[in-house]
Write a structure and sequence with these properties.
The protein is α+β, with helices and mostly antiparallel strands. The protein has helices spanning 2-21, 118-127, 141-145; strands at residues 52-60, 63-70, 85-86, 92-93, 97-100, 105-108, 201-208, 211-219, 224-229, 240-242. 14% of the residues lie in helices and 22% in strands. Strand 5 (97-100) and strand 6 form a beta hairpin.
């Protein structure tokens, strides 16, 4: 199979070379361009093996384009964004978004100024266009808790029972140790160091199931998890999106 693909590629390049030498005269060989295709060629490398299936699309003067598809060979693909960008294949500037590689999510680095009630927070994320992407949303309480750092009781896997699978008021009955305000790992804040913004209360999209006029939130100033009324309490908002695979 590999020999056949190699022969096809050689034949295509020979056709391109013939187009260059035609009319050259005296047996002179036309110069070979430095590149073929530019953005039209996409090659991904698995370990040390590259397999290319090429199809000649255009031969015109000095222009040749080979569109390449890649068949998966080996184990891990070398898939990555350019320097300064995160979240392959979407690739957003790291100045705009933090990539949570463990959970496959992109987070807004800098939240908007001001406070929002719960409905406004949802509307803000749904309308957000950031890094050329428009499918941002308000995070669930489990997603929001995944940002907590330095507070064992409320970090994912901690004693706090509030999560996407436990949203009733009784979920707060499980005791957990609160953390001291202003002593978090990021300049006193209990979140990942890549994030910015005012370190206080942030909305989740998760309502309290048995009291739906309330929604769950996280206080990153002390790593706390709680709830507040959706219609009259203003909090911060930080949007998230699931990475497209």
């Amino acid at each position: 199979m590999k020999n056949r693909k190699f022969s096809v590629l050689v034949a295509l390049l020979s056709m391109w070379a013939c187009a260059q030498t035609e009319g050259g005269g005296d047996g002179d060989t036309a110069p070979v361009p430095d590149t073929i295709g530019g953005d039209a060629a996409r090659i991904e490398v698995w370990d040390d093996t590259t397999e290319i299936q090429g199809e000649l699309q255009e031969v015109s003067g000095d222009t040749s384009e080979v569109l390449a598809d890649v068949s998966e060979v080996g184990s891990d693909a070398n898939k990555q964004c350019a320097e300064g960008y995160v979240g392959y294949p979407d690739c957003v500037s790291q100045a705009l978004a933090w990539y949570d590689e463990a959970n496959g999510r992109l987070w807004q680095v800098t939240p908007p100024d001001g406070d929002f009630n719960w409905q406004q927070a949802q509307a803000y994320c749904e309308a957000l266009e950031l890094g050329g992407l428009t499918d941002w949303r308000l995070p669930t309480i489990s997603e929001l808790r995944s940002l907590i750092r330095g507070c064992p009781g409320t970090m994912p896997g901690g004693d706090c029972a509030v999560s996407d699978s436990c949203l009733t008021m009784s979920c707060l009955a499980v005791p957990w140790d609160p953390c001291t305000p202003d002593l978090g790992p990021d300049e006193g804040c209990y979140w990942v160091t890549e994030l910015e913004g005012f370190c206080f209360l942030f909305w989740s999209a998760s309502q309290v199931e048995d009291y739906p006029e309330n929604a769950w939130s996280v206080n990153f100033n002390q790593g706390g998890v709680g709830y507040l009324a959706t219609d009259n309490v203003d909090e911060g908002v930080r949007c998230v999106r699931s990475l497209q695979q």
